[in-house]
Amino acid sequence: MKTFLGFLVATGVTLGAFGLRQQESQAQVLSGQDATQRYSANALLLALAREADAIVVGRVQAANSYWSADHTLILTDYIIQTAENLKGVAPATLRLTAEGGEVGDIGLVVSDEIKLERHARYALFLKNTAGRFTVLKGAVGAQSIDAANAALRVDVQELKSVIQTIAKEQKHENQ
Amino acid sequence: MKTNKLFLPAIFAAILFLSSCKNPVDPPPDLDNDGIADAQDQCPSVAGVSEFGGCPPPPRDRDNDGTPAAQDNCPDTPGDREYNGCPFGKVDVCSGNSPYSHYGYKWSNLMPVFQFSSSLPSAWRNETEYAASTWNAVNAGIEIRVNRTIVSNGVGQDNKNVVSYGPISSSKLGVTYGWYNTSTRILSEADIRLNSNYSFSIGESSNKYDVRSVLTHEFGHFLGLDHVSDRTHTMYPEGYPDSIIYRTLCAGDKLGLLRLY
To answer: Nearest chain B Cα to A26, which residue?
Structure first.
């Protein structure tokens, strides 16, 4: 039986997410009052920010879903326009592909894959593998700034503060 | 000279008396000068206090985690003050908040049935059923059922809800694949896969992830629940090794299900 204590967040390994969140705004999303609470002094945010090669604020310009070549999965290509680089360097236009999406009357959601709303802004924590950018930790690494239907949200000013903290730590370590 | 005869012994006695008052006996040895005789001092060469047998008092915070040892339930393991000095993941707690989030999709069949894939270790089948029954215990109007017939299917649109075990790229402990009708928002199938790139255990085990905890989280997605940012809740998106805290649900997990069905 669990006891009750204060709210906190921390790091770990990403659990799968079913993620039946539709990409479009007509999705009916019911949320508890705290479900979208912003991260505050958040260890997960710190871990993401430390691990990320680049952190950007970007707006989703396009989301196009299609069947995979073997017709076993639906995939979605996102095109994201970078508005601000908070850490590292990332292309002005990001192209990300994720499992899941909708084609016709069939929808597939794959847990913990990014599910982005068209025209919404996100803070993206990116890993750069030989010039190929992917989102860290799936959905956790794409945190909503103003999406209508998002479980995990981030405040840009808080994020900047976290990044500054990390930069100070690194400077201290290097001295 | 009667007076003289009495005076000299009196002087002698007085000297003896004064002498005995000044040095009644030799002081007991006290090497560390802490006021506790070496014979009674458990730390005779280190100054201490009588409360600790002549030894110095223990550090107020042995693991330097900010929680004084006297209040630290895990005094030698760094932890969080919020969890009485124990690390998160070792203490089964709920925040007191009730966060939940839905995707807006759900089962119309209120008795969805899952099956085991042959790839799932047989020892984990009971754990899988326990994980499903954790949600059933909420009594939300939906009951996950099991068909114990083993199938070779895994992930894929085949009208079977299968729990399997196999490799998944990236850092996910488990994944749930949900198929739904985009018009009705009704789920038609959901498959769960545990990532064989990670080490799992039944119960707490160092550097391993508890199968039941991960599957309890996955079954939350199976039912239509999204993540929350409160790490005390089972629907928090990250898992912890050597921990079983996500086997049990918090208020938001339950409320999310109750509001959905």
So the answer is: B104
CB-based contact (8 Å) between B244 and chain A? no
- Whether the predicted pLDDT of B160 surpasses 60: yes
Buried b / exposed e along B90-107 (16+ C-beta atoms within 10 A): bbbbbbebbbbbbbbbbb
Using a CB-CB distance cutoff of 8 angstroms, which residues of chain B are in contact with residue A12? 89, 238-241
Residues B215-253 pLDDT 10s: 999 999 999 998 888 888 999 888 889 999 999 999 999
Q: Hey, which residues does A57 pair with through a beta bridge? A: A84, A123
Interface mutation vs chain B, best among A4, A5, A14, A20, most B CBs within 10 Å: A20
- Chain A residues within an 8 Å CB radius of B232: 2, 5, 7-8
The DSSP bridge partners found for residue B166 are: B195
CB atoms within 10 A of CB B75: 19
Between CA A50 and CA A55 the distance in angstroms is 10
Q: Is B252 exposed, middle or buried (0-12, 13-18, 19+ CB in 10 A)?
A: buried
Contact of A73 with A88, CB cutoff 8 Å:
no
Q: How many CB pairs under 8 A join A and B?
A: 240
Please report, for chain B, the start and end positions of each structural domain, with discontinuous segments joined by +. 113-260
Let me know: does A55 contact A88? Beta carbons within 8 Å.
Answer: yes
- Residue B187 CB contacts under 8 Å (≥ 6 apart), including other chains: A20, B105, B106, B107, B108, B112, B178, B179, B180, B224
Contact B195/B120 with Cβ under 8 angstroms? no
Please give the domain boundaries of chain A with CATH numbers for all domains: 43-174 (2.40.50.120)
Task: Determine contact, residues B201/B232, Cβ cutoff 8 Å.
Answer: no
pLDDT tens-digit profile of A81-105? 999 999 999 999 999 999 999 999 9
Whether the CB of B154 is below 8 Å from some CB of chain A: the reply is no
What is the reported pTM?
Answer: 0.74
Assign domain B113-260 to a CATH class: alpha beta
Of residues B40 and A31, the one with the higher pLDDT is B40
DSSP H/E element including B211: helix B211-223
Token pair in block for residue B186:
């009704």
CB contact under 8 A, B227 and A17: yes
Q: What is the DSSP letter of B225?
A: B
